[in-house]
Amino acid sequence: MRRICxxxxxxxxxxxxxxxxAQESGVRDTAALEAFFDGVFAVQLAQANVPGAEIVVVADGxxxxxxxxxxxxxxxxxPMNPGTTLHRPGSxxxxxxxxxxxxxxxxxxxxxxxxxxTYLDFTIPSRTISNREVPPITLHHLLTxxxxxxxxxxxxxxSTPDLLKPLDQYVKEHLPARVFTxxxxxxxxxxxxxxxxxxxxxxxxxxxxxxxxxxxIEPLGMSSTTFEQDLPGxxxxxxxxxxxxxxxxxxxxxxxxxxxxPAGGLTSSALDMARLLTALLSPGEETxxxxxxxxxxxxxxxxxxxxxxxxxxxxxxGLLEWEYNGYRVLGHIGDTFLFSTGLYFLPEANVGLYVVYxxxxxxxxxxxxxxxxxxxxxxxxxxxxxxxxPIAPGTEGGYxxxxxxxxxxFSGVESLLRLAQALKVDVxxxxxxxxxxGAMAKRFGEIAPGLFQELNGEDKIAFAFQDGxxxxxxxxxxxxxxxxxxxxxxxxxxxxxxxGALFMLxxxxxxxxxxxxxRQRQGSFILPKVLAVLFILLFFTAVxxxxxxxxxxxxxxxxxxxxxxxxxxLNVLLVLTKVLVGLGALMLVTTIYVLAAKKGSLWQRIHYxxxxxxxxxxxxxxxxxxxx
Length: 628
What we know:
Strand content: 15-25%
Largest sheet: 8 strands, antiparallel, barrel
Shape: globular
Radius of gyration: 28 Å
Low-confidence stretches: 1-24
Structural class: alpha+beta
Number of helices: 18
């Protein structure tokens, strides 16, 4: 902890002390630029336990700086090199899908505002999981992540190449449930990207990987970039394996096979990604790379298309928006199990950068890098900003509650993630909102009606109200947080399951103890006990199977194998939960009969009723988390 704190303070000093001189010299002073990034990465690689990183800076249509730090391959002592080292850009792959869509829109072959079923060879249902009839999904919705699909994690990356399916098979077999009205809620969707890529396939008559290679990758001169996952030898040796930090050492990764390859399956070099960045940064202008879109189409693609709140950054067509120091920043981020990347550019300043880490470091390092870059080269003007203030007294109850990401699963077993991904909102003694997710907590104060800013920070959020109560937390980017009803909160579900399990365990121990006591048998109560014992045995069998599923992890990625490949154990578990639901129904009927017929002693009837209520509580948890 002390090491991390010292490193963080050192990083802040680097960013602060160099800002004044940078403002004078500008981003084209490559010596100063190098000194800045040398200091940043020296701290970040040590603090975040990352073997290597690369940075490329683009300005006025050309690459002005690139450098690698640390190692691409620790075992072979191969350094990171932006022109040689290959990596997996993750969701930055999506940019090629959106460019392909806009190219076909420009050619008049696609329309952003008509039902995507017009282009598909299968049909997307018109109803949500709550059986509401909703308007059709359009490409506009797909490009702004407002189609309203639920999310699905399992199967996006697979453990072996033989599990990869053709894109058409994938989009048909993995069609997610529709949850939200199109255009109403931002919910980041990998599937939506795959669907858009499949539409490109159908309209262009080419596999998406081939289309992207011929119409985007080759024209830009991205000679080290491909969507193919069976890499030729000339590229395979250049790929960094990626690493994760565990037990005080680096664990070597392996090539990630991405099933939903349009959404995250690109392989590229940092210099190639900088060529893509240059094409985005200078649409319609003479640069070192050809233009993929006309200036008018590019302006449409980079114009704001959806925002959850007028004062919050949102989405263009396929690009995320940020606001730093009063400047509009566009781009995308990407994360796989082994890599984290960020592509950012300032359209008005004609400057951009691309960063890659060969470890899954998440948002904090790349965000602090971008923030430091902006503070150094594009500092905020001295304009007066509103100070966050406490909420009005008496309104605390309208904010307090538990919220769940719109980028979640609502109909499958992945609903289980709701227990680990909830966001709790509370109000502290001073009247500031406290948002807590896991071990991380941030305090927010109000700066305008319904709009909040982090205390001593830059993050902004907003609340959407219904009947005086916050129902949704609006954040920058393609996501929102939805209030959970009390019966779906983690505390309620875990309490219900834990209390039921404890009561069943105590019951079994008590019954085992009774077996060794000489007492009169009460044959009339044998059947209820048989049902109960059967339920309890199967329930704890299901618990053991569940623990085994979560504990069996991939050695390179450290994620449960059921995320990467089909699981027969999961299938058995889901059969067991169905049996448990049936047994619970039988126990309820039996309880009603026992009470009506006054079977057994009074104590036996009371105990069995409580046991049945525990069983029903467990089944409610199964139902709420779609585990049956």
